[in-house]
C-alpha cells in the first residue's frame, strides 16, 4: 500500500466511525453477514431493512447517513431510489445511495448511475468493498454540504 492509499483509508475510517447506514437486502443471511463485518470495520450503526416499505419507514423515522440497496429486482431498487429522492424530508433527498446489482449488465449499470445512484457495485461484493464505497460517498456528501454552507 502506498502513502496516498494509507491516508485515504485513514480518512475513510474517521468518516465511517460516525456512520449510520441502512442496508436494504431481503436476503437476511447476507444482510446480517454484511452488518457484522461493517460493524467490525468500525461503522457505528448498521440497520437492516428487508424491502422498500421497511426501508422508507426506517429512513423517515431516523435518516441514515447512507443507504446500501441490494434488491434482487432492479426495478425495486429504482423505485426505492425514486421514493427517497422525492421524499418531502430534505434529509432523505440528499442521502448517498449505493446500489449493489446482481446483474453485471453494462447498460443497466449505466442507467443506474444516470438515474441517481451515487455508486454501483456488482455481485459478488465483499463487506470491505461496501465499507470503502460507503465511506467515500459519505465523505463526498459531507464535503459538498460544507462547500454549500460556505458559499451561502
Main sheet specs = 5 strands, parallel
Q: Termini, distance in Å?
A: 39 Å
- For this entry, what is the oligomeric state of its chains? single chain
**Helix count, per DSSP?**
7
Fraction in helix:
55-70%
Compute the average pLDDT: 84
Which descriptor suits the 3D outline? globular
- Count every beta strand, where a strand is a DSSP E run of 2 or more residues: 5
Adjacency order of strands in the biggest sheet: 2-1-3-4-5
Structural description of this entry:
The chain has 152 residues and is of the alpha/beta class. Helices cover 59% and strands 15% of the residues. It has a five-stranded parallel beta sheet with strand order 2-1-3-4-5, sandwiched between helices. Helix 2 (28-41) packs across helix 7 (127-151). The longest helix is centred in the last third of the chain and has 25 residues, at 127-151. The mean pLDDT is 84.
SSE diagram, text form:
Elements: H1 3-16, E1 20-24, H2 28-41, E2 45-49, H3 52-61, E3 66-69, H4 74-85, H5 90-93, E4 97-101, H6 106-115, E5 119-122, H7 127-151
Parallel strand pairs: 1-2, 1-3, 3-4, 4-5
Helix pairs in contact: 1-7, 2-7, 3-4
Amino acid at each position: 500500500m502506498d502513502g496516498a492509499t494509507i491516508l485515504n483509508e485513514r480518512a475513510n475510517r474517521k468518516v465511517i466511525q460516525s456512520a449510520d447506514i441502512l442496508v436494504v437486502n431481503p436476503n437476511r443471511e447476507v444482510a446480517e453477514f454484511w452488518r457484522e463485518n461493517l460493524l467490525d470495520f468500525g461503522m457505528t450503526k448498521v440497520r437492516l431493512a428487508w424491502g422498500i416499505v421497511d426501508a422508507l419507514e426506517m429512513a423517515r423515522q431516523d435518516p441514515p447517513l447512507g443507504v446500501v440497496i441490494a434488491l434482487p429486482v432492479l426495478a425495486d431498487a429504482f423505485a426505492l431510489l425514486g421514493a427517497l429522492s422525492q421524499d418531502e424530508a430534505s434529509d432523505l433527498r440528499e442521502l448517498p445511495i449505493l446500489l449493489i446489482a446482481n446483474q453485471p449488465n453494462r447498460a443497466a449499470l449505466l442507467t443506474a448511475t444516470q438515474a441517481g445512484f451515487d455508486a454501483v457495485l456488482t455481485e459478488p461484493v465483499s463487506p470491505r468493498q461496501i465499507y470503502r464505497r460507503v465511506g467515500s460517498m459519505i465523505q463526498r456528501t459531507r464535503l459538498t454540504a460544507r462547500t454549500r454552507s460556505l458559499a451561502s
